[in-house]
Amino acid sequence: MGENHQARFDPKTYFDYCYQFATVPGQKDNRRFVNFVLCQLSKTFSTGKYQGQRLIEVGTGPTVHTLISACQYYDEILASDYVDSNRSEIERWLRAEEGCFDWSAHMQYVCDLEGKRTPQIIADTLRQKVKRVLKCDVCLENPFHPIKVPPADCVISSLCLEAACKDRESYRRSLSSVAGLLRSGGVLVLIGDLDENYYTVGEQRFACVNLNQEFITATLSELGLTVEEFNLQQAEDRTGNLKCDYAASFHLIAVKR
Length: 257
Ligand SMILES: C[S@@+](CC[C@H](N)C(=O)[O-])C[C@H]1O[C@@H](n2cnc3c(N)ncnc32)[C@H](O)[C@@H]1O
Description:
Number of domains: 1
Shape: globular
Radius of gyration: 17 Å
Distance between the termini: 30 Å
Bound molecules: S-adenosylmethionine
Strand order of the largest sheet: 3-2-1-4-5-9-8
Strand content: 25-35%
InterPro entries: NNMT_TEMT_trans (IPR000940), SAM-dependent_MTases_sf (IPR029063)
Keywords: Methyltransferase, S-adenosyl-L-methionine, Transferase
Order of helices and strands: HHHEEHHHEEHHEEEHEE
CATH architecture: 3-Layer(aba) Sandwich
Pfam family, one: NNMT_PNMT_TEMT
Largest sheet: 7 strands, mixed
CATH topology: Rossmann fold
Structural class: alpha/beta
Protein name: Nicotinamide N-methyltransferase
Number of strands: 9
GO molecular function: N-methyltransferase activity; S-adenosylmethionine-dependent methyltransferase activity
Protein backbone atom coordinates (compact mmCIF):
# COMPACT_ATOMS: atom_id res chain seq x y z
CA MET A 1 0.00 0.00 0.00
CA GLY A 2 3.00 2.30 0.60
CA GLU A 3 4.11 1.88 -3.05
CA ASN A 4 0.58 2.66 -4.19
CA HIS A 5 0.69 5.95 -2.26
CA GLN A 6 4.20 6.66 -3.54
CA ALA A 7 2.93 6.34 -7.12
CA ARG A 8 -0.43 8.11 -6.82
CA PHE A 9 -0.65 10.34 -3.71
CA ASP A 10 -0.28 14.01 -4.64
CA PRO A 11 0.41 16.25 -1.61
CA LYS A 12 -0.81 19.46 -3.27
CA THR A 13 -4.14 17.90 -4.24
CA TYR A 14 -4.38 16.50 -0.70
CA PHE A 15 -3.91 19.99 0.78
CA ASP A 16 -6.61 21.46 -1.43
CA TYR A 17 -8.88 18.54 -0.83
CA CYS A 18 -8.59 18.20 2.93
CA TYR A 19 -6.83 21.11 4.59
CA GLN A 20 -8.04 24.29 2.89
CA PHE A 21 -10.53 25.80 5.29
CA ALA A 22 -12.61 27.16 2.38
CA THR A 23 -15.72 25.09 1.66
CA VAL A 24 -15.24 22.67 -1.20
CA PRO A 25 -18.46 21.32 -2.79
CA GLY A 26 -19.19 17.72 -1.81
CA GLN A 27 -16.74 17.80 1.09
CA LYS A 28 -18.51 19.79 3.75
CA ASP A 29 -17.31 17.42 6.47
CA ASN A 30 -13.69 18.52 5.93
CA ARG A 31 -13.61 21.47 8.25
CA ARG A 32 -15.62 19.57 10.88
CA PHE A 33 -13.05 16.76 10.75
CA VAL A 34 -10.03 19.06 10.97
CA ASN A 35 -11.60 21.00 13.85
CA PHE A 36 -12.34 17.71 15.66
CA VAL A 37 -8.69 16.65 15.32
CA LEU A 38 -7.26 20.02 16.40
CA CYS A 39 -9.68 20.23 19.31
CA GLN A 40 -8.99 16.70 20.57
CA LEU A 41 -5.21 17.16 20.31
CA SER A 42 -5.44 20.48 22.12
CA LYS A 43 -7.43 18.84 24.95
CA THR A 44 -5.00 15.90 25.12
CA PHE A 45 -1.84 17.93 25.46
CA SER A 46 -3.11 20.96 27.39
CA THR A 47 -3.62 18.68 30.41
CA GLY A 48 0.19 18.67 30.71
CA LYS A 49 -0.08 14.96 31.53
CA TYR A 50 1.82 13.88 28.42
CA GLN A 51 5.27 15.32 27.95
CA GLY A 52 8.84 14.18 27.55
CA GLN A 53 11.92 14.22 25.40
CA ARG A 54 10.94 12.46 22.17
CA LEU A 55 7.82 12.54 20.01
CA ILE A 56 7.47 10.48 16.82
CA GLU A 57 4.73 11.00 14.27
CA VAL A 58 4.17 8.07 11.94
CA GLY A 59 2.63 8.66 8.49
CA THR A 60 2.67 12.44 8.85
CA GLY A 61 1.85 12.85 5.16
CA PRO A 62 2.66 16.38 3.95
CA THR A 63 1.03 17.93 7.05
CA VAL A 64 2.10 19.46 10.38
CA HIS A 65 -1.28 20.25 12.00
CA THR A 66 -1.16 17.17 14.27
CA LEU A 67 1.96 18.58 15.94
CA ILE A 68 0.57 22.06 16.76
CA SER A 69 -0.57 21.22 20.29
CA ALA A 70 2.05 18.61 21.16
CA CYS A 71 5.16 20.52 20.07
CA GLN A 72 5.43 22.59 23.25
CA TYR A 73 5.59 19.43 25.42
CA TYR A 74 8.46 17.52 23.73
CA ASP A 75 12.10 18.45 23.08
CA GLU A 76 12.64 16.61 19.79
CA ILE A 77 10.14 15.64 17.12
CA LEU A 78 10.57 13.09 14.35
CA ALA A 79 8.08 13.31 11.47
CA SER A 80 7.83 10.55 8.85
CA ASP A 81 6.04 9.21 5.82
CA TYR A 82 6.43 6.56 3.14
CA VAL A 83 5.98 9.01 0.24
CA ASP A 84 8.98 11.09 -0.87
CA SER A 85 6.90 14.07 -2.04
CA ASN A 86 5.08 14.22 1.32
CA ARG A 87 8.36 14.37 3.22
CA SER A 88 9.58 17.08 0.81
CA GLU A 89 6.48 19.18 1.57
CA ILE A 90 7.19 18.97 5.31
CA GLU A 91 10.81 19.93 4.71
CA ARG A 92 9.73 22.84 2.51
CA TRP A 93 7.46 24.09 5.30
CA LEU A 94 10.23 23.66 7.90
CA ARG A 95 12.52 25.82 5.74
CA ALA A 96 9.63 28.31 5.26
CA GLU A 97 10.12 28.07 1.50
CA GLU A 98 8.03 30.24 -0.75
CA GLY A 99 4.88 28.43 -1.89
CA CYS A 100 4.84 25.92 0.99
CA PHE A 101 1.42 25.20 2.51
CA ASP A 102 0.12 27.88 4.88
CA TRP A 103 -0.86 26.33 8.23
CA SER A 104 -1.52 29.65 9.97
CA ALA A 105 -5.35 29.27 9.98
CA HIS A 106 -4.98 25.88 11.73
CA MET A 107 -2.52 27.39 14.20
CA GLN A 108 -4.83 30.34 14.83
CA TYR A 109 -7.69 27.92 15.53
CA VAL A 110 -5.58 26.19 18.21
CA CYS A 111 -4.42 29.56 19.62
CA ASP A 112 -8.08 30.56 20.00
CA LEU A 113 -8.75 27.31 21.90
CA GLU A 114 -5.71 27.73 24.15
CA GLY A 115 -5.78 31.49 24.59
CA LYS A 116 -1.99 31.72 24.92
CA ARG A 117 0.41 31.15 21.99
CA THR A 118 0.39 32.93 18.63
CA PRO A 119 0.69 31.20 15.21
CA GLN A 120 4.19 32.66 14.90
CA ILE A 121 5.27 31.12 18.23
CA ILE A 122 3.85 27.75 17.15
CA ALA A 123 5.59 27.89 13.77
CA ASP A 124 8.91 28.84 15.40
CA THR A 125 8.57 26.04 17.98
CA LEU A 126 7.79 23.46 15.31
CA ARG A 127 10.62 24.60 13.07
CA GLN A 128 13.02 24.34 15.98
CA LYS A 129 11.81 20.99 17.34
CA VAL A 130 11.23 18.86 14.24
CA LYS A 131 14.75 17.49 13.98
CA ARG A 132 14.22 14.67 11.47
CA VAL A 133 11.84 13.80 8.64
CA LEU A 134 12.38 10.11 7.89
CA LYS A 135 11.09 7.59 5.41
CA CYS A 136 8.90 5.09 7.22
CA ASP A 137 6.95 1.98 6.34
CA VAL A 138 4.48 0.95 9.02
CA CYS A 139 4.32 -2.51 7.45
CA LEU A 140 7.87 -3.23 8.68
CA GLU A 141 8.64 -4.42 12.18
CA ASN A 142 10.94 -1.42 12.49
CA PRO A 143 9.11 1.26 10.45
CA PHE A 144 12.40 3.21 10.05
CA HIS A 145 14.53 0.24 8.91
CA PRO A 146 17.54 0.33 8.67
CA ILE A 147 17.63 3.33 11.04
CA LYS A 148 17.11 2.56 14.73
CA VAL A 149 15.43 5.34 16.69
CA PRO A 150 15.41 5.53 20.50
CA PRO A 151 12.08 4.75 22.24
CA ALA A 152 9.66 7.67 22.21
CA ASP A 153 7.64 9.23 25.02
CA CYS A 154 4.78 9.84 22.59
CA VAL A 155 3.76 8.49 19.19
CA ILE A 156 1.09 10.23 17.11
CA SER A 157 -0.46 8.83 13.96
CA SER A 158 -3.37 10.21 11.96
CA LEU A 159 -5.26 8.47 9.15
CA CYS A 160 -2.18 6.42 8.22
CA LEU A 161 -2.65 2.85 9.41
CA GLU A 162 -6.06 2.26 7.83
CA ALA A 163 -4.63 3.53 4.51
CA ALA A 164 -1.40 1.53 4.80
CA CYS A 165 -2.93 -1.87 5.65
CA LYS A 166 -4.97 -4.15 3.44
CA ASP A 167 -6.74 -6.13 6.16
CA ARG A 168 -7.20 -6.34 9.91
CA GLU A 169 -4.31 -8.77 10.38
CA SER A 170 -1.85 -6.38 8.72
CA TYR A 171 -3.40 -3.49 10.71
CA ARG A 172 -2.71 -5.45 13.90
CA ARG A 173 0.93 -6.04 12.84
CA SER A 174 1.41 -2.35 11.94
CA LEU A 175 -0.13 -1.21 15.20
CA SER A 176 2.29 -3.54 16.98
CA SER A 177 5.24 -1.96 15.10
CA VAL A 178 4.00 1.53 15.93
CA ALA A 179 3.51 0.61 19.60
CA GLY A 180 7.03 -0.84 19.52
CA LEU A 181 8.38 2.71 19.01
CA LEU A 182 7.14 3.72 22.47
CA ARG A 183 8.92 3.39 25.78
CA SER A 184 7.01 1.64 28.54
CA GLY A 185 4.68 4.29 30.03
CA GLY A 186 4.70 6.24 26.74
CA VAL A 187 1.51 7.45 25.11
CA LEU A 188 0.01 6.64 21.72
CA VAL A 189 -2.35 9.22 20.23
CA LEU A 190 -4.16 7.67 17.31
CA ILE A 191 -6.56 9.40 14.93
CA GLY A 192 -8.52 7.58 12.26
CA ASP A 193 -11.78 6.77 10.60
CA LEU A 194 -14.22 3.97 11.40
CA ASP A 195 -16.14 1.82 8.93
CA GLU A 196 -14.25 3.34 6.01
CA ASN A 197 -13.52 1.36 2.83
CA TYR A 198 -11.83 4.01 0.68
CA TYR A 199 -10.74 7.63 0.53
CA THR A 200 -9.98 9.78 -2.47
CA VAL A 201 -7.40 12.46 -3.22
CA GLY A 202 -8.62 14.21 -6.35
CA GLU A 203 -9.18 11.52 -8.97
CA GLN A 204 -7.18 8.93 -7.04
CA ARG A 205 -8.96 6.41 -4.86
CA PHE A 206 -7.17 4.53 -2.05
CA ALA A 207 -8.53 1.45 -0.28
CA CYS A 208 -8.73 1.38 3.54
CA VAL A 209 -9.12 -1.44 6.01
CA ASN A 210 -12.58 -1.32 7.60
CA LEU A 211 -12.26 -0.77 11.38
CA ASN A 212 -14.55 -0.51 14.37
CA GLN A 213 -14.01 0.65 17.94
CA GLU A 214 -14.18 -2.86 19.46
CA PHE A 215 -11.47 -4.22 17.15
CA ILE A 216 -9.13 -1.27 17.78
CA THR A 217 -9.49 -1.32 21.58
CA ALA A 218 -9.16 -5.12 21.76
CA THR A 219 -6.06 -5.03 19.53
CA LEU A 220 -4.43 -2.28 21.59
CA SER A 221 -5.12 -4.21 24.76
CA GLU A 222 -3.58 -7.40 23.29
CA LEU A 223 -0.53 -5.34 22.32
CA GLY A 224 -0.05 -4.14 25.90
CA LEU A 225 -1.66 -0.69 25.74
CA THR A 226 -4.39 0.66 28.01
CA VAL A 227 -6.93 2.86 26.27
CA GLU A 228 -7.55 5.95 28.42
CA GLU A 229 -9.90 7.79 26.05
CA PHE A 230 -11.75 6.96 22.86
CA ASN A 231 -13.52 9.98 21.34
CA LEU A 232 -15.84 9.80 18.34
CA GLN A 233 -17.34 12.25 15.91
CA GLN A 234 -20.05 10.81 13.66
CA ALA A 235 -19.98 11.70 9.95
CA GLU A 236 -22.72 14.18 9.14
CA ASP A 237 -23.44 13.28 5.55
CA ARG A 238 -22.04 9.87 4.72
CA THR A 239 -23.73 9.51 1.33
CA GLY A 240 -23.05 13.09 0.21
CA ASN A 241 -19.35 12.87 1.05
CA LEU A 242 -17.29 12.38 -2.12
CA LYS A 243 -14.00 12.19 -0.25
CA CYS A 244 -14.50 8.95 1.65
CA ASP A 245 -17.22 6.68 3.04
CA TYR A 246 -16.33 6.85 6.75
CA ALA A 247 -19.03 6.53 9.41
CA ALA A 248 -17.13 8.31 12.19
CA SER A 249 -13.75 9.77 13.07
CA PHE A 250 -11.95 8.73 16.24
CA HIS A 251 -9.23 10.10 18.46
CA LEU A 252 -7.80 7.83 21.13
CA ILE A 253 -5.21 7.98 23.85
CA ALA A 254 -3.53 4.73 24.91
CA VAL A 255 -0.67 4.22 27.35
CA LYS A 256 1.91 1.42 26.94
CA ARG A 257 2.00 -0.79 30.03
C1 LIG B 1 -4.74 9.92 4.48
S1 LIG B 1 -3.03 10.27 4.51
C2 LIG B 1 -2.84 10.93 6.15
C3 LIG B 1 -1.81 12.00 6.20
C4 LIG B 1 -1.77 12.82 7.50
N1 LIG B 1 -1.27 12.03 8.60
C5 LIG B 1 -3.13 13.40 7.86
O1 LIG B 1 -3.63 13.18 8.97
O2 LIG B 1 -3.69 14.12 7.03
C6 LIG B 1 -2.34 8.64 4.62
C7 LIG B 1 -0.84 8.68 4.71
O3 LIG B 1 -0.35 7.36 4.95
C8 LIG B 1 0.90 7.25 4.25
N2 LIG B 1 1.22 5.82 4.08
C9 LIG B 1 0.62 4.92 3.26
N3 LIG B 1 1.21 3.71 3.38
C10 LIG B 1 2.20 3.86 4.30
C11 LIG B 1 3.14 2.98 4.88
N4 LIG B 1 3.21 1.68 4.52
N5 LIG B 1 3.98 3.46 5.81
C12 LIG B 1 3.93 4.76 6.20
N6 LIG B 1 3.06 5.65 5.68
C13 LIG B 1 2.20 5.21 4.76
C14 LIG B 1 0.63 7.98 2.95
O4 LIG B 1 1.81 8.32 2.28
C15 LIG B 1 -0.16 9.18 3.44
O5 LIG B 1 0.68 10.25 3.77
